[in-house]
Amino acid sequence: MLAAARSPQNCPALVLNADYRPLSYFPLSLWGWQDAIKAVFLERVNILAEYERVVRSPSFEMKLPSVVSLKTYVKPARNPAFTRFNVFLRDRFECQYCGERDDLTFDHLIPRSRGGRTTWDNVVAACAPCNLLKGGRLAHHIAMYPRNPPHRPTVNELRNNGRLFPPNYLHESWADYLYWDSVLEP
Description:
This protein is α+β, with helices and mostly antiparallel strands and 186 residues long. 23% of the residues lie in helices and 22% in strands. The strands form two sheets. A four-stranded mixed β-sheet has the order 2-1-4-3. A two-stranded antiparallel sheet has the order 5-6. A hairpin with a 2-residue loop joins strand 3 and strand 4.
C-alpha cells in the first residue's frame, strides 16, 4: 500500500450545512481530518459517511469521517462579497472579450484613470493580452465589448457557476450530496 494512500491528509471531509447541501461548491467545502474529528468531539457535526481509514490513540479508535453535516444551520450570505475570485467565478473563469481562460485579470470598463470604480457593474474578467489591448480606453472607442454585461451576481448564481468546475478529487461517498455525477463515473 502506498504511503500516500494511508495518510490521513488524503482523507478530507465534505462539509454540508444542516440542510445537507455543501457550504460552498467552489471552492468545495472540505475540512482536513483533524478539523473533522475536532468537530465530532465538540458535537458540532453529524457523521454521514466514513472512510475505511482508521486513526488511533492509546485509548481510542475512529474511522475518519468523509461526509459531515453541521448540526446548526449556517445561513448563507445574501450578497456575495466583491472579490477577484467571485468576479472570475461570475464570469466563469473566461476572458469576457475573447473567451481565453489563462492569465486572467480584472478589467475596468470605465478605466480607473477615467474615474471608473472597482464595483460589480464596472469590472469583468479579462486575459492579460485583452486587458493590455484595451488599456485605459473606453469599450466603444476600441470596439471591445464584454460578452456578458457585468452585474452583481446572486449567491445562487455563484453557487451554480461553481458547480461547473468540479474539483480534481471527489470521493465516491460524496456522490449523494454533490451534483457532479459525470465526474464520479468511470
